[in-house]
Description:
Elements: H1 20-54, H2 61-94
Helix pairs in contact: 1-2
Amino acid sequence: MQPLQGLAPVGLAKPDAGSAADKVEQSFAKIMTDMVSQVNDQQQAADRAVQEVHAGGAKNLHEAMIALEEADISLRFLVQVRNKAMDAYQEIMRMQV
């Protein structure tokens, strides 16, 4: 059996030579920061929707519930990504050099 060769991830640019590890670290940190910011925005939007329903605003109850569920799913996803990243980090730290 021969190993597969020449396969590259679709849609990802090939890293340049040099400080590739720095670029990966920076991009991972940027991705995580963006995810946290996006989840925070969704949580705040859901809170505003609930407040509008409570105050008798124009928002419908079902729209507020949809916003709440979207925010909840996003938060759960973010927590799972964090858990997987922590598991990977702990696995790397357990490796012997």
